[in-house]
Amino acid sequence: MAASVAHDLSNAPSVITLTGVNKWFGQFHVLSDINLDVKEGEKIVICGPSGSGKSTLIRCINRLEEHQAGDIVVDGVTLTNDVKNIEAIRREVGMVFQSFNLFPHLTILENLTLAPIWVKKMPKREAEEVAMNLLKRVRIPEQALKYPGQLSGGQQQRVAIARALCMRPKIMLFDEPTSALDPEMVKEVLDVMIELAREGMTMLCVTHEMGFARAVADRVIFMDRGEIVEQNEPESFFANPRNERTKLFLGQILHH
Amino acid sequence: MADALPVGERPQLAPPIDETGPLGWARKHLFSSWLNGLVTVALIVAIGWILSWFLEWAVFTANFTASTGSECRGGGACWALIREKYRLIFFGTYPYEQQWRPLFAVVAMLAMLITSADRRMWNWRLLVIWGLGSFITFLLMFGQIYIPLSLFLFVALVVGLIGMALRKGIADAVEMNAYRALAAIGAIGLVLRILGVLPAWSLAIAPLPYVETSLWGGIPVTIILATYGLVFAFPYGILLALGRRSNLPLIKGLCVGFIELIRGVPLISLLIMASVMLPLFLPSGVTIDKFLRAQVAVILFAGAYIAEIIRGGLQSLPKGQFEAADAMGLNYVQKTLLIILPQALRVVIPPLINTFIGFFKDTSLVLIIGIFDFLNSANQALVDPNWAGFPGEIYLFAAFIYFCFCFSMSRYSKYLEVELNKGTRR
To answer: What is the pTM of this model?
Structure first.
């Protein structure tokens, strides 16, 4: 795999800052004292065993989950219960889900133009232009008038990525985007994500695709039982894991 | 081998004759085994016997032309009774010479319903169709309509407020000012009216003699109660369902309480309460039309049932749909109207239409408060001592009319299911 794209992050501003973030599901401590600083243009891959809290972490960033302690600041806006703050943050943060979550009753084009028209109040024609350009970018412009149910999994996920990009977000969150795909479709989605990374998007990606991490990540974070156990840039992370738990995890997933 | 022809060059044979076509179908479905064959034959004989008996009674020995009951007795069905009493059956106690009015009112309502069924009309046109259709219907039924000033003011206020809310950020300043002006006129006018400063003026539209609701009867009553009952119960049910799923405990509690209370009592008891108890709570001299009370009772009752059906639909949606809508920055109203409700409603079309069909027939219960809908008017035809003893014919005929309506609703439901689910695998 190619070495990660070298770019200078030292002068970039922080776009996401998590300080002492804790979350409980009832009595279960799912996020334990998380401190994380994400710079603009940085690409972070979060990995770990299931139940480690990695999905919960990124879902806290756009308030799909609520954190009970600590602070989360996204693009200068502090995340609280204030609906205005939440909506402002969600406009700047795009999310791609494991189960695509396309709207089955709308065509692909309508799926893409829905948010720009209703949230950004963009005129319909302009929104459709933006949408078609993005569909071309993910290489499926001919599917614009079909319904999600008529597309394959890989195509649906690429539409989901295009849909998130239609709002021109500053940050993209990916929650295991390829985990629900057949192996032959994983590559087409990863290619889109790699292109997106190379164009400078700030990305937080929960994934098991270590090849992707090696290709574009600036940092790989390993989480286990709600804590950040280890983080490092990909070369060092895979070659010299420091923590025992990291070594165990890497041993399990890198056997092929 | 002699028959080893290359693939693609073998001759195309027709399938054996008793495997396909009507013979093949019969063999597979009706005569696939000895037992099946015996049952098939037995059923054909039984159905044939019943059918022949029925046709004998209903058609071949039926009397279509008798002019008194005694002439009609003996022999087959007495359809002459229907011919004699059809005005009573269809229009009840509506004044005889004015019965063209409920006839045209029914035509207007059917036209309204049929044009609404077309999906191309599902936009602002729906308001026009229903506004115009309802106006014509009630003008014909009542004969005279008085539109009070307060209604005009109220409409102005509502249009102004809705315009301001929905068109904010999209419309230009002139349009926004128009909405503000409308809302202001409406609000100030209503206040002045309540204070008594503005007099009680009504726009009078009175082309025909007035017929009060206590004289209405027959098929128009059934259609009005069912149609307007369900048209108002549907959005009301949606709001109840959404309220029940709310996170705010007060709203949720109110909605749960309301749904459980209404579902826990029979419609008859609601009708009696509306008819008998409500007047006790009103100040003396104030009366609310009995027909209106029955209509409101039907709306409240149907709304609770519809709410639970829709709640089932809402629950069946995968959580991811809500999350994707949230992640895109849609607010609650946008998320509900654009993403959640369209999907939830599509899923529950079968039970919804089922409820509609049931309620269409439940309207007969208004007999308990002295309103004569179609079934009860048909019943009245049996009261005549001259034509005693033909309940079968009357009820069969009433059943046939109900069947026409209910079956149409059922077919429409199938059409809707196919239409609205074009993109998904079903």
So the answer is: 0.84
